[in-house]
Amino acid sequence: MARSHTFHYVLMLMPALILVTLFNIYPMSGIVLAFKHFNPTEGIWGSPWAGLDHFESIVQSSESKQILKNTLVISVLKMITMLIVPVVFALLLNEVRIHWLKRSVQTIVYLPHFLSWVVIAGIMREALGLDGVVNSMLQAWFGLEAQMFLGSNVWFRPILILSNVWKEFGFSTIIYLAALTSINPALYEAADIDGANRFQKMKHITIPGISMTIVLLATLSLQGILNAGFDQVFNLYNVLVYETADIIDTYIYRSGLVSFQYEAATAIGFINSVISMLLIIITYWLAYRFAKYRIF
Fold first, then answer.
1. Where are the bilayer-spanning segments (predicted)?
2. pTM for this one?
3. d(CA 84, CA 221)
């Protein structure tokens, strides 16, 4: 009897399970490339074994160290800004008493989240180009020379961070605004009776009321510390900024699909996947430890 009641659920899951198996699980067998000297004529399984040679080359390479540094710097800066900006904006927006204005601003800042980085990169290339609107304004208003913003190792990282904040902070803001609605209004009423001003209520009621949400999101963000945003970087960077912009994912792409160094690309991807899995385990443990959040 139980089987008849659950069979249709299993049947509904089958297409998804088949897709996951074909596109996520089966391709993992290609990890063996990291331990091979790949020869296209002999195929993956017929190619001779290389042992840990590719991993040793990666560890000893100065280029790999620079790529890891770039990835960590960009990821950490994104994590910090995406923690501070949405919280501050949510607190400020929560103080707005005109409901239609509050809703309108909330919608407007949320819209960039739905834009593709391909579209945003195209807009930024036009705006920040030598003949773009930014350089035109700098020349007309301040008499400054035109800057290659997307070709400068000084400007490229700040542009990455600021454009990421502009695109994504609206989504995180909604999460914090939802958390603000769970605060008991009686606390604010008691604070009004005691003569507390808005700043004091924000300091002693609002921020402590969403502190667990802040801790939870900050903890969960740690799992993406090796994910600096392939889509964004790939669509914006160029050879002039490899020194500060080349991250693990873009290096894997160039090594494997451009330079045809399949073994090295697979080895780096394997290391990245193992570390990412460990980070996911640690972050979920920390989320349960400090915020009592768990999936299973």
1. 7-26, 72-93, 105-124, 169-188, 209-230, 264-287
2. 0.84
3. 13
Which of 8, 15, 169 has its CA nearest to residue 93?
169
In whole angstroms, what is the distance from residue 118 CA to residue 122 CA? 6
Distance CA 93, CA 106 (A): 8
Q: What gap in Å lies between CA 294 and CA 296, rounded to an integer?
A: 6
Phi, psi of 279 (to 5 degrees): -65, -40
DSSP bridge pairs for 49:
36
Q: Is 44 exposed, middle or buried (0-12, 13-18, 19+ CB in 10 A)?
A: middle
Query: What are residue 287's phi and psi, to 5 degrees?
Result: -65, -40
Please name the residues in contact with 106: beta carbons below 8 A apart, sequence gap of 6 or more: 93, 170, 173, 174, 177
Structure tokens given for 184? 């008991």
What's the chain's length in residues?
A: 296
216-252: pLDDT as tens digits: 888 878 777 888 889 999 999 988 999 999 999 999 9
Dist CA 54 CA 49 (whole Å): 11
Q: What is the CATH number of domain 56-291?
A: 1.10.3720.10
